[in-house]
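Just curious. Invent one:
>
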Amino acid sequence: MAPLTLGYDDKHPFSQVPITDRASVQELLRTVLDPLEPFFSPQKARVKCPGATAVRFDQTASEVEGFFRPIWGLACLLAGGGQYRGTDWWIQGIKAGTDPESPEYWGYPRDNDQRMVEMCPFGFALAVAPEIWAGLSAKERVNVENWLGNSINEKKSDYMPNTNWLWFRVFANLGLKQNGAKYSEERLESDIKHLDTFYRGDGWSNDGPEGIHQMDYYSSSFAIHFLQLLYAKLAATSDPSRAKEFKHRAQIAALDLVHYHDTLGRAIPFGRSLVYRFAMVSFWGALAYADVDLPAPLTWGMVKGIVLRNLRWWQTQGDIWTSSGTLSLGFSYPSMYITENYNSPGSPYWSCLAFICLAVPEQHPFWTSEEEPISSLIPKVKAIRHPGHITSYLGGHCMLLSSGQACGYPMKATHAKYGGFAYSSAFGYSVPSGLFSLEQYALASQLGLSDDGGEYWKTRRLSEYAAIEERDGQPILVSVWKPFADVKIKTLLVPPVESTPNWHLRVHRIQAGREVMTADGAFAIRNANSENGRYLDLYDESKCEGTSPKIIGNYDTNTPAGWDTGLNGAFAVAADRGAVGIKALEPQGQRQANLVNADPNTNLMDSRTTIPTLQHKIPQGQEVWYISAVYAKPAGTGVPKESYLDGWKSPPTIPNWLVLEMAADGGM
């Protein structure tokens, strides 16, 4: 097969598969695997995906990652009775990679080695695709036992991250066990027992021990729930009580996790590792694979719809591919700004977890049911206690408000990936491109504070307190945080209501021990007009497109056209994206509104964005209350562009409970 080369306006084969049934999803996977062929090493043990970017681990490990991550998809295809012309590439590669005498030997894993991560898909593939083990000689099987089993089982607990990584050793042992090979039952049991200490209740597991609050897609589709369900299937006979418990947790969690998916197939981007793209729906296919009984009101038609609509949405994101047809580093387009230090060019193929649905038998109701939309019986607004989220289906998109989560270490852009106030399936989140000015910080759905006149900014990362509380029978999120030692902020996040579905409120009580500038950003939106792709101009009602006020610059106060009062606010409308905006509701009327022209490639969804923002300066020693009303109305099927600003002139009123709280504090 000739290498795939995508030229100007060429479409990737992935986007041209009509997704209707199991066979079509099998074909979809083949379009993901085929472009890898030219990038296999001579003995097939390594895959060097295009891109010379370095990561925190060595180049060999990077190429081992490129080899094993696609095997998630291949193993699922084979487990479901499907076929792939390149299956032998992986069998040959396993032979060479595990052979210490081969020039393509993968190398013995060191402590905290990335090779241990890739042992997870290796173990799963051995467990579900018998042709792999059958294709090995006796000597080659011993090599596999040594590399896959001995090497990882000798690692002490403090030489592996105390996170979802422990599942990877579980699957290394499970794959060997399923084939009657040498493995460690002691390690398998002790690891699962320890992983169980991450469980927090109501179906939710944390990605780490006490002291870390991180419940992102690793808790569901990328690792923990996904692997629990795979384990429940594979160990149903050998460990029936634990398998039953894992399935029970998935039943409970499913009623929460459905709130992270919208009617168009998009999942809410939140947290790290979003280069894994369509793996965000793998939990739902794993439910079917593990034969979980769905809790009402979920149906297999709904679950099937969540998976297939997501795959179809990714088919519309044509920029996710390199010119060679391989997956790029990024989300809706290539961008290194969103990546983590462990994202090699082969990392995005963890996306292949989504193809677990191919291991589901053709007769299963996942495949035989008609696709259904998400049920109207699902609550429109829901407080989800363990991750610290309030989710909303109101306003034409799936949105979550968040407080209290933080990565266990200060990873790149962690404040944007976990500390933002709101995350949207339609508008994504934004990460900084640098550390100088609001353009580079790209503070979408964040409150930034600067004590040096606007050069460096600090936002919420760690919270001293965070909880879901209740006001007048409605859930709100409350957090207390300090961007500086002498600046204390109490933030209240109030979800949308039926009467104003496109608005949510962010309330900040700021006690400033030093003079600070503040910038409160709305969602970011595409900064390109529909006529010629140039930046948005001043709003044109006849075109239903543009901004108010005009995009001038972040601190250009000498150009009045670029600023408006906080009461009037700032908004931006892009014809193919919808409208976003922000207004200041506090009676003092001190803040001003403008548009921040964010650096390119900072937003996950669109490479050019602008952010409606409220700005202000607080003198040293003062206390202020901000009430920011944030507007969002996405484009969508049946949503005329003339309606994008329908709710803009009618923001929510300040709730009575908030009036009383502010009055008691002297803020009204």
Remarks:
- The first helix runs from residue 22 to 33.
- The first strand starts at residue 199 and ends at 201.
